[in-house]
Amino acid sequence: MSGRVHLVGAGPGDPGLLTARALELIAEADIILYDRLIPPSALDGARADAELLYVGKERGGPSVAQEQTEELMVSRAREGKTVVRLKGGDPFVFGRGGEEALTLRAAGIPFEVVPGVTAGVGASAYAGIPLTHRGLASAVALITGHEDPDKDEAASHWRALAAFPGTLVLYMGVRRLPDIAAALMAAGRPGSEPTAVVEGGTLPAQRTISATLETIAEAVRREAVNPPSITVIGPVAALAEELSWLPVRPLAGRSVAVTRARAQASGLARRLEALGARVVQAPVIRIRSLSEPDLPPLDLSPYDLICLTSANGVAALFERLEAAGGDARALAGAKVAAVGAATAAALSEHGIVADVVGESFVAESLVEALADVEVKRALVARAREARDVLPDALRARGVEVDVLALYETLVEPLPPLTLEAARQADYVTFTSSSTVRFFVQAAGGDAGLSPGTRIVSIGPVTSRTLREHGMEPHVEAARHDVDGIIEALLADVTSA
């Protein structure tokens, strides 16, 4: 039985512009074939067992041929898989979605098209440029900038565009802008017409370069504008400064690599993006639950204290309980302790209010918080490989302690382009010792960070692991959680 392919538009870059249907399909997909310009966190909602394959095209870098991408769609669908072809912008606007749909139709593969916000519309709106405006423009033309203005057959094309009574929006044309502007002016478009180039539209580092059609190419060269960029030509471009609405963000222009597991990285990544950072998603670890179908039901009744040492442990514990038909009532007879606010928040999502919460995300903090708590038998639910600080401290008090391994942390290979982007980032964040070890492993034994990259550690335990691997942290969070990471990074940027 054949599967189905979904040609899904991921929008121009801001993950908040992903449609509800796109998010639904990403969560259901067996395999996701994704492009370079999708939002960094677009894959956060994918299933843990989903196959994620990069099929993007990189100027001057490795690329996947279009024919290979289409073969993958067809072959995986014929295996009965649900396939999401995730494309930046809209699949039917300069996205080759039409070609892919024709290939699927010829192969007899059912498909669905999910529109996305196209870059010309999204980037313009984020720059404060209305593409239509009463009295200024009542029509819009979307144009590929890859067309060579010097080709003989393109002459009539540029004459028609020069005479077009509305706004021109050029996609992918920033490198050809001098020739395009010259061709339009030669065909009669006024050189004085307002023109704006929006670089990185809807992304944290978005910026707008305003000029006239005659001067825009020099302005773009002077400002070293790079793709992805769109160019807006017409009177509405002059409204960019007046209608600009994006606030100044403290991390604008900075790149930050996030190394924690993709599922856990989304909160930190979104916070960083909201502050203006360009986030490099470089998940070097993934979390695998140790729950198996044949495991016996988990009996928590013998314990008067249950300790959870991470949000991952909370998720794995409830997965194990629910697999056996249980729920939060299984914890009713015990006090529940959490390492840090994030673990406590994860418990609250399951209706459990932690009785004891360590001030920071380290075992030592929870040991201190439990100092006056009477306990005879405790369960420490944690990762397979973890420090024994908490169980050892409880045993030293005469407590009978059982340790339950609920999940394990595994290495996640990094694509070469992602690894290089992380190495060159302004900041790289490490939120656990495992992210340090596995980053070094993914890098081939040497982290290879650029001299200008500043290392951010979540706390002293992670800092110690960094030093063991030859990396001195430049920034260490005072609060050993995501909020502490953010606060420390902002303080470092401010003091620079």
Brief description of this entry?
The protein has helices at 20-28, 66-78, 97-106, 119-126, 155-162, 177-186, 216-222, 240-243, 262-274, 311-323, 340-348, 363-369, 389-396, 416-424, 433-442, 460-468, 482-495; strands at 4-9, 31-34, 51-54, 82-87, 111-114, 140-144, 167-171, 194-199, 207-212, 229-233, 255-258, 278-281, 285-289, 305-308, 335-338, 356-357, 377-383, 400-411, 427-430, 454-457, 475-476. With 496 residues, it is α/β, with parallel strands linked by helices. It has four domains: 4-116, Tetrapyrrole methylase, N-terminal domain (Cobalt-precorrin-4 Transmethylase, domain 1); 121-243, 2-Layer Sandwich (Methyltransferase, Cobalt-precorrin-4 Transmethylase, Domain 2), CATH 3.30.950; 255-284 and 412-495, Rossmann fold (3-Layer(aba) Sandwich); 289-409, Rossmann fold (3-Layer(aba) Sandwich).
Q: End-to-end distance, in Å? A: 59 Å
CATH architecture of the largest domain: 2-Layer Sandwich
Rg result = 26 Å
Could you name the ranges where pLDDT drops below 50 across 5 or more consecutive residues?
none
Q: Percentage of helical residues?
A: 25-40%
**How would a crystallographer describe the biggest sheet?**
6 strands, mixed
Averaging pLDDT over every residue, what do you get?
Answer: 89
SS strand fraction: 15-25%
When the domains are counted, the total is 4
Say how many strands there are: 21
Structure classification: alpha/beta
* Order of strands, widest sheet: 13-18-17-14-15-16
Topology-level CATH name of the largest domain: Methyltransferase, Cobalt-precorrin-4 Transmethylase, Domain 2
- Described by the principal axes of the CA atoms, the overall outline is elongated
Number of helices: 17
The CATH class of the largest domain, by name, is Alpha Beta
